[in-house]
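User: Need the bound-state model for guanosine-5'-monophosphate:
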Amino acid sequence: MKHKEPGKDERRLVPPETSLFVVSAPSGAGKRTILDTVFERDDGLAYAVSATTRPPRTGEVDGQNYFFLSEEAFRCRVKAGDFLEWAAVHGNLYGTLREELSKRLASGKDVVLELDVQGMRSVKAAWPDTVSVFVMAPSFEELERRLERRGANDPADTAVRLANARTEMDVRHEFDYIIVNDDLAEAVSDMEAIVRAARCRAAKQP
Ligand code: ADP
Ligand code: 5GP
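Assistant: Bound-state model below.
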């Protein structure tokens, strides 16, 4: 099995009044930067922390950016059925823990999941009113510059991420919204507008 999707029972997890957001982007496009600002300003949003087998970057905190697991521990939790969905991305494993999503939903806040395209498809299939957002850099050259500036990846890893960026860009029209992250303030404002519109949907009102 190369990935897993939420099952039928899991579909009852998300209350009808909660808005669920999936944000995806080619690595380095700036989704983390945009979300950091949006989270600072919006107390009604919760971030569901994923688990991963990739090593932490400088400054990343276990339990805050990711739950960093060894491959053995990750696979053990796959076997235990702890993941709602998981997938192999850029040569590492990433997944959404059922317990983590439940905890965030219990806070009564709207929830943001940062997932790759496979994860977005799985979540959309289970919860069709999920709002999906694709963040992209204004050009490949700029994406490359941002990946290099972030500087945490070795050149081989950067090459994998850039190659995968092209594949990810090809399916961007599967998403509900596309944000071009050129000017950061504008991109943040676009994300905030999407969140606001989602909350105004009639289906989310009493
Ligand atoms: P992602 O989460 O999509 O992998 P990050 O948020 O880590 O990307 O951003 C990658 C790099 O690009 C970081 O160094 C960040 O500071 C920079 N960055 C993000 N948005 C912009 C922007 N609008 N203009 C210039 N640099 C940006
Ligand atoms: P990074 O290593 O740059 O933090 O993330 C690499 C990719 O993994 C990104 O596209 C990110 O959205 C994706 N990702 C992070 N967490 C998850 C997850 O829980 N599930 C899936 N399917 N993808 C994830």
